[in-house]
Amino acid sequence: MAVNIYFATNRKVLKDGDDAEIGETFHENFDELRFGRASFTGSELYKKDLDSFIGKAKVHVPKEKLSLEDAAKSKLGSTAIFDEVRQEMLKKGDALIFVHGYDHKFREAAGRAAQLQQWLAAGGKDMAVLLFTWPSAGAGVSRRTYADDRKRAEISGPALGRALLKATDFIRNTPRNDRCNGRIHLLCHSMGNWALRGAVQAMRTFVGNNIPPLFDEVILAAADEDDDTLQSNYKVAPLLRGCRRITVYYNHQDLALKASDYAMGNPDRLGRSGPCLTPQCPSKVAVVNVSPAVVWQAKGAAAWTADPTGHQYFRNNTRVRQDILQVLGGKLDEDFVADKERRRNDIGDYWRLV
Fold first, then answer.
1. In this predicted model, what pLDDT tens digit does every residue of 165-199 receive, in sequence order?
2. Domains in the chain: ranges and CATH
3. Among 130, 136, 153, 167, which lies 20 to 30 A Cα-Cα from 142?
4. Rounded CA separation 16/61 (Å)
5. What spatial distance separates the first Cα and last Cα of the chain, rounded to whole Å?
């Protein structure tokens, strides 16, 4: 079984074309963007260790030809990849943009996206997946590497913002008869949410608060972001104008975000405590407490679900995956409150997985 992951990156491309090579450092221009495709072979990759398959991935980065005299004559990699995504959406329907978190080398990030694509498909939501991969060092977990990756994510915000605006322009410039009717969703995990803040603010420099309505569902999972980010215009709040709904998943037992809180001296994290200022949380935001559903340990055939930090639940916890599938499938628009076996309503749009 083959799966294609499309990607945009501000990592340095060491070699383009077929058998492309992507580095782990920034391009000389931090917001420089290249687009490509990573192809994987195998089924149920989400049950396998990354190291068992990411080395076999075939990476393609379209060669570009830029014209300084006439921009219309330029050959852009973004156009080629966006058109491939469009073709896949014509077959599958929706697309998902995924922004990974801390401590991911390029092939690790692409492998995580492939796992994500396959478990979504296994759950009945087969989608095209477009990864934004920022140059996380992938150098392990420590106070020093955390600080380094946090700065890398922050610097990568403008590149992510440019990628989203490029996608918007591509859609607007596509003839109506060639468009698909699929929806576009966004999922950001952990420190990827820090890059998202930078992207939102970078887009504001071009469009003000009129963030283009690119997204249907936005999912912020285990967000390593301030807990007031959805109430602050200088953080992520302007994204509310660019989507139909935002779902926040948080876990009180998230040890990775606890370290971010205390060891790194950050404010309360959105992914550990949920949004602050509860009465002022925008009505477009749904908040889901996953703490009761988090799997701490698993054995035997289910060992791949082990999550000792309580931080990776968005991809390896069966209950949380089920909820994400329901969100992306539009089940919140149906008689969702009646599903007492999955969610229990705490107050308003605040939910608890049971």
1. 999 999 999 888 888 889 999 999 999 999 999 99
2. 78-353 (3.40.50.1820)
3. 130
4. 5
5. 34
